[in-house]
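Lecture notes, part 5. Sequence design as translation. It can be helpful to think of inverse folding as translation between two languages: the language of shapes and the language of residues. The source text, in C-alpha coordinates, appears below.
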Protein backbone atom coordinates (compact mmCIF):
# COMPACT_ATOMS: atom_id res chain seq x y z
CA UNK A 1 0.00 0.00 0.00
CA UNK A 2 2.97 2.33 -0.01
CA UNK A 3 4.95 2.81 -3.21
CA UNK A 4 6.08 5.91 -5.03
CA UNK A 5 5.86 6.78 -8.71
CA UNK A 6 6.63 9.80 -10.88
CA UNK A 7 5.78 10.56 -14.52
CA UNK A 8 8.71 9.98 -16.86
CA UNK A 9 8.00 13.23 -18.65
CA UNK A 10 7.06 16.43 -16.84
CA UNK A 11 7.34 20.14 -17.57
CA UNK A 12 10.20 22.04 -15.99
CA UNK A 13 7.92 23.62 -13.40
CA UNK A 14 10.50 26.11 -12.17
CA UNK A 15 10.79 27.55 -15.69
CA UNK A 16 7.05 27.30 -16.31
CA UNK A 17 6.09 29.13 -13.12
CA UNK A 18 9.17 31.38 -13.06
CA UNK A 19 10.19 30.84 -9.43
CA UNK A 20 10.91 28.31 -6.74
CA UNK A 21 12.62 24.96 -6.52
CA UNK A 22 10.17 22.58 -8.15
CA UNK A 23 11.35 19.11 -9.09
CA UNK A 24 11.99 18.15 -12.68
CA UNK A 25 13.77 15.16 -14.23
CA UNK A 26 16.91 15.17 -16.35
CA UNK A 27 17.11 11.80 -18.07
CA UNK A 28 20.61 10.31 -18.41
CA UNK A 29 22.14 8.09 -21.12
CA UNK A 30 22.33 5.14 -18.70
CA UNK A 31 18.54 5.05 -18.31
CA UNK A 32 18.45 6.75 -14.91
CA UNK A 33 17.27 10.29 -14.25
CA UNK A 34 18.50 13.06 -12.03
CA UNK A 35 15.80 14.67 -9.95
CA UNK A 36 16.61 18.36 -10.05
CA UNK A 37 15.30 20.71 -7.39
CA UNK A 38 15.22 24.07 -9.15
CA UNK A 39 18.63 23.91 -10.82
CA UNK A 40 20.24 21.74 -8.15
CA UNK A 41 20.82 17.99 -8.09
CA UNK A 42 18.51 16.30 -5.56
CA UNK A 43 18.84 12.56 -6.16
CA UNK A 44 19.35 10.01 -8.92
CA UNK A 45 16.43 7.67 -9.60
CA UNK A 46 16.03 4.60 -11.78
CA UNK A 47 13.51 3.46 -14.37
CA UNK A 48 11.51 1.65 -11.71
CA UNK A 49 10.38 5.09 -10.53
CA UNK A 50 8.30 5.57 -13.69
CA UNK A 51 8.28 2.40 -15.84
CA UNK A 52 5.01 0.62 -15.06
CA UNK A 53 6.08 -2.72 -16.56
CA UNK A 54 9.40 -2.89 -14.69
CA UNK A 55 7.46 -2.14 -11.52
CA UNK A 56 4.95 -4.93 -12.18
CA UNK A 57 7.70 -7.49 -12.88
CA UNK A 58 9.74 -6.36 -9.85
CA UNK A 59 6.66 -6.97 -7.74
CA UNK A 60 6.00 -10.35 -9.36
CA UNK A 61 9.43 -11.49 -8.16
CA UNK A 62 7.94 -11.36 -4.68
CA UNK A 63 4.54 -12.78 -5.66
CA UNK A 64 2.84 -9.42 -5.29
CA UNK A 65 0.37 -8.35 -7.94
CA UNK A 66 -1.03 -5.01 -6.89
CA UNK A 67 0.67 -1.81 -5.79
CA UNK A 68 -0.84 1.34 -4.33
CA UNK A 69 1.01 4.23 -5.92
CA UNK A 70 1.41 7.84 -4.87
CA UNK A 71 3.81 10.61 -5.70
CA UNK A 72 7.23 11.16 -4.12
CA UNK A 73 6.76 13.52 -1.14
CA UNK A 74 9.28 16.03 -2.51
CA UNK A 75 6.68 16.68 -5.23
CA UNK A 76 4.10 17.96 -2.69
CA UNK A 77 5.30 21.57 -3.23
CA UNK A 78 3.17 22.95 -0.38
CA UNK A 79 5.48 25.98 -0.34
CA UNK A 80 4.42 27.08 -3.83
CA UNK A 81 1.65 29.50 -4.84
CA UNK A 82 -1.62 27.59 -4.37
CA UNK A 83 -2.72 27.79 -8.01
CA UNK A 84 0.65 26.50 -9.20
CA UNK A 85 0.66 23.66 -6.67
CA UNK A 86 -2.90 22.83 -7.75
CA UNK A 87 -1.78 22.65 -11.40
CA UNK A 88 1.18 20.45 -10.49
CA UNK A 89 -1.00 18.22 -8.30
CA UNK A 90 -3.56 17.80 -11.10
CA UNK A 91 -0.81 16.81 -13.52
CA UNK A 92 0.51 14.14 -11.12
CA UNK A 93 -3.00 12.92 -10.26
CA UNK A 94 -4.00 12.62 -13.93
CA UNK A 95 -0.84 10.59 -14.58
CA UNK A 96 -1.71 8.14 -11.79
CA UNK A 97 -5.39 7.98 -12.80
CA UNK A 98 -4.40 7.15 -16.36
CA UNK A 99 -2.03 4.43 -15.12
CA UNK A 100 -4.77 2.90 -12.97
CA UNK A 101 -7.12 2.92 -15.96
CA UNK A 102 -4.62 1.05 -18.10
CA UNK A 103 -3.65 -1.48 -15.40
CA UNK A 104 -6.68 -1.78 -13.11
CA UNK A 105 -5.52 -5.12 -11.72
CA UNK A 106 -2.01 -3.94 -10.87
CA UNK A 107 -2.30 -0.35 -9.73
CA UNK A 108 -4.37 1.55 -7.19
CA UNK A 109 -3.90 5.32 -7.03
CA UNK A 110 -3.62 7.93 -4.32
CA UNK A 111 -3.50 11.61 -5.24
CA UNK A 112 -1.78 14.71 -3.92
CA UNK A 113 -3.44 18.05 -3.08
CA UNK A 114 -2.34 21.66 -2.43
CA UNK A 115 -2.60 21.53 1.36
CA UNK A 116 -1.48 25.18 1.67
CA UNK A 117 -4.88 26.35 0.40
CA UNK A 118 -7.96 24.73 1.91
CA UNK A 119 -10.30 25.67 -0.93
CA UNK A 120 -7.94 24.55 -3.70
CA UNK A 121 -7.21 21.35 -1.80
CA UNK A 122 -10.90 20.46 -1.54
CA UNK A 123 -11.44 21.29 -5.21
CA UNK A 124 -8.68 18.86 -6.17
CA UNK A 125 -10.04 16.23 -3.77
CA UNK A 126 -13.34 16.35 -5.61
CA UNK A 127 -11.54 15.98 -8.92
CA UNK A 128 -9.44 13.11 -7.51
CA UNK A 129 -12.64 11.30 -6.64
CA UNK A 130 -14.04 11.86 -10.14
CA UNK A 131 -10.97 10.42 -11.90
CA UNK A 132 -10.97 7.17 -9.97
CA UNK A 133 -8.31 7.63 -7.29
CA UNK A 134 -9.28 6.13 -3.94
CA UNK A 135 -7.41 8.39 -1.56
CA UNK A 136 -4.80 11.02 -1.02
CA UNK A 137 -1.27 11.20 0.38
CA UNK A 138 -0.58 14.11 2.75
CA UNK A 139 2.69 15.26 4.34
CA UNK A 140 3.34 14.93 8.09
CA UNK A 141 3.49 18.72 8.35
CA UNK A 142 2.41 21.51 6.03
CA UNK A 143 5.10 24.17 5.83
CA UNK A 144 5.94 23.30 9.43
CA UNK A 145 2.34 23.58 10.60
CA UNK A 146 0.78 20.58 12.30
CA UNK A 147 -2.18 18.64 10.97
CA UNK A 148 -4.16 19.71 14.05
CA UNK A 149 -4.43 23.29 12.70
CA UNK A 150 -8.10 24.19 12.20
CA UNK A 151 -7.54 25.29 8.60
CA UNK A 152 -6.75 21.68 7.65
CA UNK A 153 -9.87 20.27 9.24
CA UNK A 154 -12.22 21.03 6.29
CA UNK A 155 -9.81 19.07 4.08
CA UNK A 156 -10.05 15.99 6.31
CA UNK A 157 -13.79 16.54 6.51
CA UNK A 158 -13.95 16.52 2.69
CA UNK A 159 -11.91 13.28 2.59
CA UNK A 160 -14.43 11.72 4.95
CA UNK A 161 -17.40 13.06 2.98
CA UNK A 162 -15.95 11.91 -0.35
CA UNK A 163 -14.97 8.56 1.18
CA UNK A 164 -11.32 9.03 0.24
CA UNK A 165 -8.62 7.29 2.30
CA UNK A 166 -5.75 9.34 3.71
CA UNK A 167 -2.12 8.28 3.87
CA UNK A 168 0.21 10.35 6.03
CA UNK A 169 3.81 10.40 4.81
CA UNK A 170 6.77 11.98 6.65
CA UNK A 171 8.57 14.75 4.81
CA UNK A 172 10.47 18.00 5.48
CA UNK A 173 11.82 16.37 8.56
CA UNK A 174 12.14 18.36 11.77
CA UNK A 175 15.75 19.05 12.67
CA UNK A 176 16.88 18.36 9.10
CA UNK A 177 19.64 20.98 9.00
CA UNK A 178 20.92 20.08 12.46
CA UNK A 179 21.43 16.38 11.69
CA UNK A 180 22.39 15.95 8.06
CA UNK A 181 25.23 13.53 8.88
CA UNK A 182 24.59 9.76 8.98
CA UNK A 183 21.31 10.06 7.05
CA UNK A 184 19.71 11.07 10.35
CA UNK A 185 16.78 12.96 8.78
CA UNK A 186 15.63 9.61 7.35
CA UNK A 187 16.58 7.40 10.31
CA UNK A 188 15.57 9.69 13.17
CA UNK A 189 13.54 12.53 11.65
CA UNK A 190 11.08 10.45 9.61
CA UNK A 191 9.77 8.27 12.48
CA UNK A 192 9.48 11.40 14.63
CA UNK A 193 7.61 13.25 11.86
CA UNK A 194 5.04 10.46 11.60
CA UNK A 195 4.52 10.47 15.36
CA UNK A 196 4.16 14.25 15.21
CA UNK A 197 1.37 13.79 12.64
CA UNK A 198 -0.38 11.01 14.59
CA UNK A 199 -0.22 12.95 17.88
CA UNK A 200 -1.46 16.12 16.16
CA UNK A 201 -4.41 14.38 14.55
CA UNK A 202 -5.34 12.66 17.83
CA UNK A 203 -4.77 15.53 20.27
CA UNK A 204 -6.32 17.99 17.79
CA UNK A 205 -9.46 15.84 17.71
CA UNK A 206 -9.37 15.16 13.97
CA UNK A 207 -9.85 11.41 14.43
CA UNK A 208 -12.42 12.05 17.17
CA UNK A 209 -14.53 14.40 15.09
CA UNK A 210 -14.28 12.29 11.93
CA UNK A 211 -14.75 8.70 13.07
CA UNK A 212 -15.23 7.48 9.49
CA UNK A 213 -12.01 9.04 8.19
CA UNK A 214 -9.71 6.20 7.10
CA UNK A 215 -6.15 7.26 7.89
CA UNK A 216 -2.97 5.22 7.41
CA UNK A 217 0.36 6.32 8.89
CA UNK A 218 3.54 5.39 7.01
CA UNK A 219 6.43 3.30 8.31
CA UNK A 220 4.34 1.46 10.90
CA UNK A 221 3.32 4.82 12.38
CA UNK A 222 6.93 5.91 12.93
CA UNK A 223 7.77 6.33 16.60
CA UNK A 224 4.10 6.77 17.60
CA UNK A 225 3.27 3.16 18.52
CA UNK A 226 6.64 2.35 20.16
CA UNK A 227 6.23 5.41 22.41
CA UNK A 228 2.47 5.14 23.07
CA UNK A 229 3.16 4.45 26.77
CA UNK A 230 5.02 7.74 27.10
CA UNK A 231 2.40 9.59 25.08
CA UNK A 232 -0.43 8.18 27.21
CA UNK A 233 1.44 8.95 30.42
CA UNK A 234 1.98 12.52 29.23
CA UNK A 235 -1.74 12.79 28.51
CA UNK A 236 -2.53 11.54 32.04
CA UNK A 237 0.06 13.51 34.01
CA UNK A 238 -0.18 16.83 32.17
CA UNK A 239 -3.71 17.09 30.75
CA UNK A 240 -3.29 20.85 31.03
CA UNK A 241 -0.74 20.59 28.20
CA UNK A 242 -1.93 17.57 26.27
CA UNK A 243 -5.69 17.13 26.65
CA UNK A 244 -6.62 20.70 25.80
CA UNK A 245 -8.49 19.98 22.56
CA UNK A 246 -9.51 16.34 22.98
CA UNK A 247 -10.26 14.70 26.33
CA UNK A 248 -9.94 11.13 24.99
CA UNK A 249 -6.93 8.99 25.97
CA UNK A 250 -4.70 8.52 22.87
CA UNK A 251 -4.58 4.76 23.47
CA UNK A 252 -8.29 4.64 22.60
CA UNK A 253 -7.38 5.28 18.98
CA UNK A 254 -5.21 2.20 18.54
CA UNK A 255 -6.77 -0.01 15.90
CA UNK A 256 -8.92 2.85 14.61
CA UNK A 257 -6.33 3.96 12.08
CA UNK A 258 -4.09 1.92 9.80
CA UNK A 259 -0.29 1.69 9.59
CA UNK A 260 1.95 -0.05 7.07
CA UNK A 261 4.25 -2.96 7.84
CA UNK A 262 7.57 -1.27 7.01
CA UNK A 263 9.56 -2.15 10.15
CA UNK A 264 12.36 -4.40 8.76
CA UNK A 265 12.09 -6.31 12.03
CA UNK A 266 9.68 -9.12 12.81
CA UNK A 267 9.64 -8.42 16.56
CA UNK A 268 8.79 -4.78 15.91
CA UNK A 269 6.06 -5.89 13.51
CA UNK A 270 4.63 -8.30 16.10
CA UNK A 271 4.49 -5.44 18.61
CA UNK A 272 2.70 -3.26 16.02
CA UNK A 273 0.26 -6.09 15.27
CA UNK A 274 -0.38 -6.48 18.97
CA UNK A 275 -1.20 -2.76 19.25
CA UNK A 276 -3.26 -2.45 16.10
CA UNK A 277 -4.69 -5.85 15.22
CA UNK A 278 -3.86 -7.52 11.91
CA UNK A 279 -6.74 -5.79 10.09
CA UNK A 280 -5.00 -2.47 10.66
CA UNK A 281 -1.47 -3.26 9.44
CA UNK A 282 -1.08 -3.08 5.64
CA UNK A 283 1.74 -4.56 3.61
CA UNK A 284 3.89 -1.58 2.68
CA UNK A 285 7.14 -1.48 0.74
CA UNK A 286 8.19 2.13 0.04
CA UNK A 287 9.29 0.71 -3.31
CA UNK A 288 11.43 1.62 -5.19
CA UNK A 289 13.52 3.45 -2.60
CA UNK A 290 16.44 1.83 -0.76
CA UNK A 291 15.04 2.34 2.74
CA UNK A 292 11.94 0.35 1.78
CA UNK A 293 11.05 -3.31 2.27
CA UNK A 294 12.15 -4.19 -1.25
CA UNK A 295 11.61 -7.92 -0.76
CA UNK A 296 7.91 -7.03 -0.39
CA UNK A 297 6.95 -8.76 2.84
CA UNK A 298 9.42 -11.68 2.66
CA UNK A 299 10.30 -11.28 6.36
CA UNK A 300 6.59 -11.54 7.15
CA UNK A 301 6.02 -14.59 4.98
CA UNK A 302 8.99 -16.37 6.59
CA UNK A 303 7.84 -15.54 10.13
CA UNK A 304 5.80 -17.66 12.52
CA UNK A 305 2.80 -15.33 12.31
CA UNK A 306 -0.47 -17.19 11.73
CA UNK A 307 -1.82 -17.70 8.23
CA UNK A 308 -4.72 -15.40 9.08
CA UNK A 309 -2.46 -12.59 10.29
CA UNK A 310 -0.30 -12.86 7.18
CA UNK A 311 -3.36 -12.82 4.92
CA UNK A 312 -4.68 -9.77 6.74
CA UNK A 313 -1.40 -7.87 6.37
CA UNK A 314 -0.88 -8.97 2.77
CA UNK A 315 -4.28 -7.86 1.52
CA UNK A 316 -7.27 -7.57 3.85
CA UNK A 317 -6.01 -4.57 5.82
CA UNK A 318 -5.29 -2.55 2.67
CA UNK A 319 -8.57 -3.54 1.02
CA UNK A 320 -10.45 -2.45 4.11
CA UNK A 321 -8.50 0.81 4.37
CA UNK A 322 -9.28 1.63 0.73
CA UNK A 323 -12.78 0.07 0.76
CA UNK A 324 -11.94 -2.14 -2.20
CA UNK A 325 -13.05 -5.65 -3.06
CA UNK A 326 -10.43 -8.35 -3.58
CA UNK A 327 -12.41 -9.72 -6.53
CA UNK A 328 -11.67 -6.58 -8.53
CA UNK A 329 -8.06 -7.76 -8.82
CA UNK A 330 -8.61 -11.40 -9.92
ZN1 LIG B 1 7.39 6.43 1.23
Amino acid sequence: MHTHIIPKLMPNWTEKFGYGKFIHLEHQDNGTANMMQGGQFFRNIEENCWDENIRISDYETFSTKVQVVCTIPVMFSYWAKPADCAALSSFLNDHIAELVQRYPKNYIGLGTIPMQDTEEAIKELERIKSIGLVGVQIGSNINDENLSEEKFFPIFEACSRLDLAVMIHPWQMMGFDAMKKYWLPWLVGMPAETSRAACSMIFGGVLERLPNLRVCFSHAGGSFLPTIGRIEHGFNCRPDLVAIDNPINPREYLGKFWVDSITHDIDALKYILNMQGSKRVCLGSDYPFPLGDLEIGKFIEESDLSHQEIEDVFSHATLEWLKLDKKAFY
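The translated text above is only one of many valid answers, since several sequences can fold into similar shapes. Residues 2, 4, 169, 218, 286 surround zinc ion (CB under 6 Å).
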